[in-house]
Amino acid sequence: LAAFDTQAAELAKKARGLEAPLACAKAVRNAVTLPFDEALAAERQLFLKLVSGDQSRAQRHLFFAEREAAKIPGKDLQKRRLERVGIIGAGTMGGGIAMAFANGGLPVTLLETSEEALRRGLATIEKNYAVSVSRGSLTEEAKQTRLTLFKGSTDYADLADCDLIIEAVFEDMAVKKEVFGKLDAIARPGAILATNTSYLDVNEIAASTSRPQDVLGMHFFSPANVMKLLEIVRAEKTAPEVLATVTDLARRIGKVAVVVGVCHGFVGNRMLSARGAENEALLLEGATPAQVDKAFTDFGWPMGPFQMGDLAGLDIGWRNRKARGQTAVIADTLCEQGHFGQKTGRGWYRYESGAREPVADPDVEALIRAKAAELGIARREIGAEEIIERTLHPLVNEGAKILEEGIAARASDIDVVWVNGYGFPIGKGGPMFWAGLEGAGRIAERLEYWHQRTGRAIFEPAPALKRFAEMGSWKGAGGAP
């Protein structure tokens, strides 16, 4: 049994707080160590405990939430033809999106600005498929079949026969408008034009064309060929059959689609900004990156915000802050030093010899102490409970505002976004479901406490959250459950 117990211990690490995988392991162990009838009775007790627990409720909630998210007005409208897809940009994002469509059996025209960039992008796609073959998740025959679906080009005219064209270029409004101006001139009538923007105003992008009814957002998550979530951004003038067509297409390529409205960051990234608003304050006031990240992983997240920042690249957030005239005293300093995370070997953590495992960096901790001293902040002990209150409570609060504004149709849509796109623990059902488990009244009370203490707007309880605390349902508070 020693080998079994070793494997069970490994499973416990990967389960991140989920009870069912551990119960499965226990039931199998009982089958070996107990008489048949006793093992059967023990398995029944394990099942009854699980099925009546919060984690089971949370996962059943998500099962139905994903199906509900696909139900949109106009779903039964005549769908537009979708036989070939064009992707502008063969970088990490564009290449991943192209793979997602090829994996779904759709031919793809991949456009780049130069032959060199195009070759590099197609080579990366081939390499990614080769990795899947080496792991045994794809046959060599399937790899070759998928590669035949790609057609590379540096000429916009080659997109003229595409039924859907998605741009995945630099996150800059002027660049996006230039691309959509070119598409407006060459795309066939009735072709759907989509932007993969993470933050920008889709209405403004649509207005740069003569066909705003054909424009919407398709916000894929990186790596796009792996991540299941697709935020479909409904612009002000998006035609109902365009929305229905793309929602149907998402299922064809294995994505979980959620329709959202236009605002800065849509649902996911807008709430992510709220979750991270206190990150630097927590460090300046006494926490370390490792302490904050541990509070997150203990909660059930796959990683904490600082490790996630290093993985994504700190330069992305730096660029976004500069574009919006914002600063972050510690993160900006790290970026000015060229420390962008894993890709440079240093960020919030050190990464020795190209390793992915983060190691605490004394220089970062010294920088935090120095910046706190400059700002006259007296550092103190900060516990895990405070970290959760100052990160996840604002996350829920921003979700409540999104419901009030009609950016999301249902609270459960927000849960689908956060579980499938951002790693919110599945056993807690998403942030809006978790608010019910935690107690919306308690969350509102603690937000008010931090609002009084800091004066920061991020902590001001949303009216919808207060109504949820009173009524016990998001439906009456500001949106559907």
Can you give a write-up of this model?
This protein folds into four domains: 2-52; 85-266, Rossmann fold, CATH 3.40.50; 287-374, Orthogonal Bundle (N-(1-d-carboxylethyl)-l-norvaline Dehydrogenase, domain 2); 384-477, N-(1-d-carboxylethyl)-l-norvaline Dehydrogenase, domain 2. An eight-stranded mixed β-sheet has the order 3-2-1-4-5-6-7-8, with helices on both faces. It has a two-stranded antiparallel ribbon with strand order 9-10. It has helices spanning 2-15, 19-33, 36-51, 54-69, 92-103, 115-135, 140-147, 173-186, 202-207, 240-252, 268-276, 279-285, 289-299, 305-312, 314-323, 329-336, 362-374, 384-405, 411-421, 431-438, 440-454, 463-471, 474-477; strands spanning 85-88, 108-111, 150-153, 164-167, 192-195, 215-220, 229-233, 256-260, 349-350, 359-360. It has 481 residues and is α/β, with parallel strands linked by helices. The longest helix has 22 residues, at 384-405. Strand 1, helix 5 and strand 2 (108-111) form a beta-alpha-beta unit. The protein is built from 23 helices and ten strands.
Report the β-strand fraction as a percent range: 5-15%
| Residue-averaged pLDDT | 95
Specify the CATH class of the largest domain.
Alpha Beta
**How many independent structural domains?**
4
Q: What do we call the CATH topology of the largest domain?
A: Rossmann fold
Rg on CA atoms, Å: 24 Å
Estimate percent helicity: 55-70%
If strands are numbered along the chain, what order do they take across the biggest sheet? Answer: 3-2-1-4-5-6-7-8
Number of strands: 10
**Alpha-carbon distance between the termini?**
46 Å
